[in-house]
Amino acid sequence: MKETDIHDKFLHEENKKREVIAPDGSIIEIDPLQDYFCDARPQINEPFKIKVIEKFLNWARAESIWVLGFGTGCGSIEIPPLVTPRFDAFRYGVQMRATPRQSNAFIISGYLSVKTLKRVIRSYEQMQSPKYVIALGSCTINGGMYWDSYNTINRLDHYLPVDVYIAGCMPRPEALLAGFMKLKELIKAGKAEKANEYIENLDWYKANQKKIIRDWNMPDYNW
Amino acid sequence: MKKFIKDLSFRFNITEIEYQRKNLAFVSVDKESVMQMLSYLRDTEGFSHFVLMTAVDWIEDGIFQLTYILNNPTKKIDLAIRIKILRENAEMYSAHHLWNQVATYQRELKEMFGINFPGSPRVNESFLLEGWDNIPPMRRDFDTKKYSEETYFPRPGRGTNDPAQHMKIKLYPNE
Amino acid sequence: MNKHWLNIGYDRSKYPETGVDGNLVIDKTAHKLVKLWQGPNHPGVTGNMSIELTISGDEIVEAKTHVGYLHRGFEKLFERRKYIQVFPTCIRLCVAEPDYNEYNLAASVEELSGIEVPEVAQWLRTLVLEMARLQSLLRVVPGQGGTTGLGIGVQWGVYLRDLILDRFEELTGGRVYHMYIIPGGVRGLLPEGFKKRLKSTLKEIDEFIVNIDNLMFSNAVFKKRTIGVGYIDPTWVDSYGIVGPNARAAGFKRDVRKDYPYLKYNELEFDPQTATESDIYTRSRIRWHDLKMTVDLIQQILDKMPDDGIIRAQTPNVLHWKIPKGETYVRSESSRGEYGFYVVADGTEYPRRINLRGPSYTHAVSLLEHMLIGANIADVASIMVSLQTCPPEIER
């Protein structure tokens, strides 16, 4: 079976092409996945032309890492200690945000089932560039505990670009802080360019994502 | 407990009785009398707490074993009822009218084992999986390792050893 | 399609209207309702799950729980692992309090193969289970305040929970996942000075218990938001399979530690509280009493337990360990209620089937869907937290 056929099989009723009657009586043909969303390809976020300003911007980005509060796996149990007074990530400019629009870092806290991966991709693509991904735990590196499970992915970097990996099952809050410091170094050096890499290799990432997410039901790029 | 099971076996056709603990017994009954038995136990004998319901795949015999565990909160005893149903076109009567949470269990069993429960609410909606396109994953003939290797890009370099063999080679190489 | 959907003269405030029986008359197919998803990316859900709400104004007319975001296929993975390999895997079933998984599996394996656990190991297991309950309650009790905007209690609670995790680290080497209880016993004795340090931590928690009482349970906003909200009818307790603190708040004295004493709970003095109001406030209050009781229990365990002795019974070589054919169901009381393992062994080195009965399975799916009807959107988070749902144990 071809891949597109599989996606058609799981297409929801409300996303199918259909004809509707407008209030004035005329008949309109709609294709929800094309019409309701912008299908423009995402653009690469070019660095600022003047180097000093780019350096300043990178410094500013590094000091204000706003993390999307989406606990995708069991690693999310170590987030509350991280942001409360004992480990106090706020002193490094790290804080939790509720929506993807306000955040620029995504902590993938552990294993990702296929169902979550779909939501993660959607949330990631809604975040504003420049954006960074921190992969927490062994399960994002090679599957970890769940390497032979039928519902969890083995390697996160085939579906999303990863800036920093934090190994462990599960990593301690100190390890998370070390990961943030590493991310800061990368951003300050201008090396945290994975979001651009994602856009450059969008077709490869999309093919990988579509291979396992059969219930696709969303536009190709949810910006 | 023993006396109670004896009384029960007069009413229903109990084929097998196994006392696991002082307060836990496993009884086997046939498929037809199980709904009667469940409502009798709930309404008359005070087994009002439905603990769990699950299936076990005995692929070598070609059957699914369904287990209902009921609990009597006042007498503090548990009764597990086992039913054997055929693996092919597996179908069972729905018990959602007795306890409200049973519908959830049946939805899971339908998805994970492919056992059908006609009449159970929302039984055909997917529960845990999304876009599953294979045989139900909890059946024994589904190979999760093979599926994972084919689908999820395993990172090369990961080896698996049989623990017993590996320990023997590492610790006692000369034996 | 309704032709009059743009009719200006239509008064939307009239919908839905009150019927003869006093309830709202709602036609779910009338295209006049809004669908709202709460979760999975939402600060107001417990863990990674979502609820599909159909709302009319601010009132919920239909709710559907969607789970499966954390499904890892554990029960399939267990079939591929030897019994000793199941242990490090099964504790990942529930991250909030992993030790109950260890205990349940160890107890069922011991029961099936007829192993007696030494005295000291039983005491140590009781201690670890109570510590696990304590750290879970320290997250949940103030967390209830967090859902109504009272963030300070959460900060205190998370800090104190961290102190308990430090004690765990000292005892077991792991912070969140401990793997301390193994078949036949436990992995080690208490380190030197452990009792003293744990007692000083308990002293801090005693202070917190008083403070949270003043801060949260006397708070006017908290009372207003929770008293009378999220009512569980006592008749639902059996028909929806409600257990633990949620059942105790509805007047049913259900506690596995009292009803089916395991480990050393026979020798400890405790009295689970019950109440009859059965709203969010009462459930939260019952958990607060549980917290107090747990601190007291740990004190008792530390005073009564012997210091030294055999901590592990003789077991066969775990790599070739064949469990005799049989089935059993073992339960223990987690902070959320009855937590059970149904284990089927077929006489080989691999388990045939291990099935988990988590309290959230009934609380978060069928009960929550039923409870949310008629609630306001703002109360959804409070109701969810008051049931203390933990999604990983639903989907496994």
Structure, described:
The complex is a heterotrimer of chains A (223), B (175) and C (396). Helix content of chain A is 34%, strand content 12%. Chain A is α/β, with parallel strands linked by helices and 223 residues long. Chain A has a single domain (51-212), classed as Rossmann fold, CATH 3.40.50.12280. In chain A, the strands form three sheets. In chain A, strands 5-6-7 form a three-stranded parallel β-sheet, with helices on one face. Chain A is globular and about 60 Å long. Chain B is α+β, with helices and mostly antiparallel strands. Chain B has a single domain (2-154), classed as 2-Layer Sandwich (Beta Polymerase, domain 2), CATH 3.30.460.80. Chain B is built from five helices and five strands. Chain B has a five-stranded mixed β-sheet with strand order 1-2-5-4-3, with helices on one face. In chain B, a hairpin with a 2-residue loop joins strand 1 (14-21) and strand 2 (24-29). In chain B, 36% of the residues are buried. In chain C, strand 2 (50-56) and strand 3 (59-66) form a beta hairpin. In chain C, helix 4 packs antiparallel against helix 5 (151-172). Chain C folds into two domains: 12-66, no CATH class; 76-395, Cytochrome-c3 Hydrogenase, chain B (Orthogonal Bundle), CATH 1.10.645.10. Chain C has a three-stranded antiparallel β-sheet with strand order 1-2-3. Chain C has a three-stranded antiparallel β-sheet with strand order 6-7-8. Chain C is 44% helix and 12% strand. Chain C has 14 helices and eight strands. Chain C is of the alpha+beta class and 396 residues long. Chains in contact: A-B, A-C, B-C.
